[in-house]
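User: Please predict structures.

Assistant: First:
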Amino acid sequence: MDQTKNFLGSGWKFPPRLDNRGRIELVHEEQDVEEAIRMILLTHKGERPMRPEFGCEIHDLVFAPNDPATSGLARRFVIEALTMWEPRIDVLEVKTVPNPTTENVLMLNIQYQVIATNSQRNLVFPFYSIPGGE
């Protein structure tokens, strides 16, 4: 393994599970980065007692209407969280697009670059709000 990819490391597969030999299944390199991004976005700020600042404030929007204001806040929260908690990437762009078939889903299209490899990647993350929660 070259030194560049070695910097990206390895981590537990998310959600955690056992491999066919009964050991914790691991992910490596770019897949580890992608799973770390998902972990950041899925974690509510304050959810982890020993690290209360970890996570993303997007969960504060769960009862917000799926409108341009909420889209803007979601975009800001994602950029702030990834910039703070994932030093292996540069966030290039976050686009928020309402799902045309499901009104309570906001699709987050996250374009990022893995710093160690200059590899540009894309992650689509659905954010679900609770309808009628305004």
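Second:
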Amino acid sequence: MKKWLTAVLATVLILSTLTIAMANHDSGNGKSQELKKFRVGAEALLEQHKDLIEGKRVGLITNPTGVDRDLNSVVDLLFNDPDVELTALYGPEHGVRGSAQAGAYVEYYIDEKTNLPVYSLYGQTKKPTPEMLENVDVLLFDIQDVGTRFYTYIYTMAYAMEAAKENEIPFIVLDRPNPLGGHKVEGPVLETKYKSFVGNYEIPLRHGMTVGELAQLFNEEFGIGADLTVVEMNGWKRTMHYDDTPLEFVMPSPNMPTLDTALVYPGAALIEGTNVSEGRGTTKPFELIGAPFINSDHLAAELNSLKLPGVKFRAASFIPTFSKHSGKLSHGIQIHITDYDSFKPVETGLHIVKTIHDMYPEDFEFRAEDSKGISFFDLLTGNGWIREAIENGQSVEEIKAQWQDELDQFKQVREKYLLY
């Protein structure tokens, strides 16, 4: 009897295991099929919408992130396509090939690979001039954004849209995923007084939109009025992590080396507005934060005691090779994301700034104000009141409560322009 029962139980167990395995296999196949259908805007353009550029002289705004799933450059794809006449290239901050450091001006030159003229859209000329557009019938934009208001590529796009409007040239955005996902929105909405090239429109720090969606919002809500077309991605969903796509993460800029950098950036980059190093000059920019005057163990312990969602802080020391505290031993923390779904980068960044400010009042400084009383920290937050709130001892919760109404209003406007 016992042997019979044992045999029955063993059979049931085997059948259950096989059923689960087959279900997982089918599920895996389904996901695999979805990934095979995935296309970024550049691929969708050449496979499904080539009529938008055929028979036209094409200008392309791009950088090294303009690649397909197989890491082929959109420059090469267009240049080598017999149906496409690529006539000019335009580079944002860091240039078409991505070799220039932050803030460095890239002059006009001839691209060695294609022999095409390359115009800089950073520095002296952020907006394409009529002369730059003389040999162009349609202007394309294909750059990977990182989902944060103060990343300059989205304003390069907006200025180029203005130029396209003024010169009666159609403008096409080849859409790409938002590495932060497309369903979470966080942080203060920029105030008009604090407009700059690190924040030119009234959007929050973490906007939760793709560049194509932002282009539509900029075009309609802020009166650009360009002849705009967005070539949508195939297979992208708002809840997808970047790792859920078949795409490799290509460095959008020299200090954005990994996906983890992009994930912490909306909050960690607020450190740029202070005298504390944001990790430039190390292999972990924006993940490493510190200064010579900080005690790393004390700071890590204080931040960990806050029990912020989805993140832990490790005591760390480093010597930046350039930028703030170059060549000096600095102490601080490394940010480790433990659960991205619950991680709140903007809130986390504010806690880091406030904690260092409160722990080291004699040493910590916000960057100096300009003649208008505006600090670079203010340009990053998009207002002047957050800096004052930190200096006056307000909590991060109190600060968050003050931006919530405008954030809710933005969310309502944003809904009109979501494509996915």
